[in-house]
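Design job #97: recover the sequence.
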């Protein structure tokens, strides 16, 4: 995709991933870059400006993309697949008959039209007959006013997105109000359930995480844990035999994998196996976010030549950074059950330092917080372009890992 992009997930009422809003740093207020039509043909649409395909950013999900006045008038969206793209008309456009006609034309080509940050103004009335989705910023519009509009908009077949949903209480409030989709950071923030007991499977997975996080891996102990459930052996070998990892030899056992790959790599896949099972009852996107963070933090540790950092520590940190959301337990309580590297433990508990800053950087990418990304780049003297490259490659890696494990 374009050199500097971020993506924000949009979820259904059942917390399943529906789409991503794709944010462009080189476009006005995160919108699709606004350049001349001729330049678009030669620079944006061609592969020379693309470092990651849209399908790699969003997978099989829709891409919500902000389009401003000129990009809509020049029909820029037509360079994108109408079956995968939702056109967001931003609230700052100047509504003219020409703009209305342009959007109507795009709807006729099969694109879904969404009104972003809907402010209930009468100027949007001409759009409603061909609008598929309306987004409300729940931080800006009074909730009472939104509640009054919901039945009127739903009568017209318009689906509703609640933006900036930061807590589960807000998610439930707007779900009960009749909203279809939810965008915000609520999923990554755990809905803590006090005194919740871990089931036997979760306890087994915590044991695996304990082994993967210990200084020296006890192969016999890991074998004992995995052999209790034959499906775990199958899952672990499927992870390890992923073409991204093992390109030549078919791995047939954990001991074979240890001899072939070494202890550090095996620890990663034991942790991956444990987390995949822990997350079974959680929204799928939590596992995807964890995988992206794991690979991203691992690559950051490789990039940082100023500090002596353990790549595996970065991987484990990213992988476990959403464990509290998956298990609905406080992070400090979970961390106390796993003998992790002290630096990883402190970073998971939000103690400042290099590893904690790595997780924060991943969050900045998830939120499109460009100033935070720039500040990290300056602080640690790592080129911003390289940071974007690392995040893009982490997205690709996570997608391929998940795809191969569902085959």
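Job complete. Output follows.
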């Amino acid at each position: 995709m374009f050199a500097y992009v971020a993506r924000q997930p949009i979820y259904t009422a059942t917390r399943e991933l529906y789409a991503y809003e794709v944010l462009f740093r080189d476009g006005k207020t995160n919108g699709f870059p606004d350049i001349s039509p001729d330049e678009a043909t030669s620079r944006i649409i061609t592969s020379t400006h693309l470092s990651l395909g849209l399908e790699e950013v969003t997978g099989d999900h829709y891409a919500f993309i902000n389009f401003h006045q000129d990009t809509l008038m020049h029909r820029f969206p037509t360079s994108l697949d109408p079956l995968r793209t939702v056109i967001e008309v931003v609230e700052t456009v100047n509504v003219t008959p020409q703009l209305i006609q342009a959007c109507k034309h795009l709807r006729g080509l099969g694109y879904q039209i969404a009104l972003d940050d809907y402010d209930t103004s009468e100027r949007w009335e001409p759009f409603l007959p061909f609008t598929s989705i309306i987004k409300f910023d729940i931080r800006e519009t009074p909730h009472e006013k939104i509640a009054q509009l919901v039945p009127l908009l739903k009568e017209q077949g318009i689906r509703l997105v609640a933006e900036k949903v930061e807590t589960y209480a807000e998610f439930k409030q707007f779900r009960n109000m009749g909203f279809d989709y939810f965008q915000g950071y609520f999923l990554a923030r755990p809905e803590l359930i006090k005194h919740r007991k871990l089931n036997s499977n979760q306890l087994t997975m915590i044991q695996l995480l304990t082994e993967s996080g210990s200084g020296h891996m006890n192969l016999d102990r890991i074998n004992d844990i995995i052999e209790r459930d034959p499906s775990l052996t199958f899952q672990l070998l499927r992870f390890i035999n992923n073409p991204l990892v093992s390109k030549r030899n078919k791995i047939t056992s954990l001991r074979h994998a240890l001899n072939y790959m070494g202890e550090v790599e095996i620890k990663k896949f034991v942790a991956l196996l444990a987390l995949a099972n822990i997350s079974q009852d959680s929204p799928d996107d939590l596992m995807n976010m964890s995988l992206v963070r794991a690979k991203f933090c691992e690559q950051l540790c490789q990039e940082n030549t100023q500090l002596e950092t353990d790549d595996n520590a970065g991987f484990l940190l990213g992988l476990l950074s959403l464990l509290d959301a998956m298990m609905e337990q406080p992070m400090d309580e979970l961390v106390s059950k796993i003998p992790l590297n002290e630096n990883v433990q402190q970073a998971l508990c939000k103690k400042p330092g290099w590893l904690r800053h790595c997780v924060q950087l991943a969050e900045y990418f998830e939120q499109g917080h460009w100033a935070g990304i720039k500040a990290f780049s300056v602080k640690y003297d790592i080129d911003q372009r390289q940071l974007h490259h690392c995040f893009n490659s982490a997205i690709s890696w996570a997608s391929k890992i998940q795809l191969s494990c569902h085959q």
